[in-house]
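USER: If only I could read backbone structure tokens as easily as an amino acid sequence. It would mean a lot if you studied the pair and described how this chain folds. Here is the record:
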Amino acid sequence: MSTISISQAQRDIRRSVTLKEFDAVLELLAHDPRGPENADDADYPEWVRHSVSAGGTKLRVLRYMLDHLPAHAQPRLLDVGAQVGAMAAYAAQLGFAVTAVDYPHYAKRFSAILAPFGLDYRSCDVSQQPLPFADGAFDFVTYMDVMEHHSFSPKRVLLEIHRVLAPGGRVLITTPNHASIYNRMLLLLGRSVNDDFAYHFHTCEARTPYPGHHREYTRRELRIALRQTGFRVLECATTEESLRSQLYALRKRKRAFTRWNAHEGFNVLATAAGRVWGALGLPFGRLLWAVAEKGEPTQGAPSAPEKLEDKV
């Protein structure tokens, strides 16, 4: 995928990528009565709106793609694990030709809601089915906050992403960092780093598969997974959510103290601390960020030697 230099028009589009505009998309989705899985799900609107606290990472992804546009007219994006589809909808507004894919129960609910944005939302059970697209169909694939929810190896999904990317196409991945400083501290204190026990044990007792985190990854593991499925790793780092999006979410909440505010308050402190880890070059952030380019398939080949720092 050859890229073109950034024109003034593209710079203008990049500057227009803002939390306010992303939040506007979230508000449209939060107000749609077709969104809740159950008619009596009163928490659905707040759940959707809460996504603005992670908006900084979504904007980072969009700006990265705008900075690396393909030479042809309209960039083609596939969002794997789109769920509500807010980022995919915003990308469509920015001029991308966007396709989204998720499990049938999400596709059934959100395909009609997102159709006015111009999205092609497909149903696919990636645990059993190949992605329903031709080889080389996309310039970018986003695979954000999805890997950790798989109850199966992500290898099959990464191989499928590799297949549907055009030559030189890029996958952008975010997923929790299992080796974050917060997880290390919790283990030292004898606490669990898994999902909340009550949520796992009681709330989800009748749900199969379990919708929470099945396996989280370290930076080294993510790099190796990408290399062994045919990708050339361009970036692989630990990071934190944007402090700006955390503060935006807090300012937006009018109530004095809610469960989301408590969570976002901790996120602000952790994000601020993350700047320290980043300045010191320590891989302690709560998120993994990776960008990889389609190369020749090398599945089954041994991974390249990793630097010692990647074993931290």
Q: What stands out?
A: The longest helix spans residues 259-280. Residues 30 and 46 are 7 Å apart (CA to CA). The beta strands are 76-80, 97-102, 120-123, 138-144, 165-176, 231-239, 287-294.
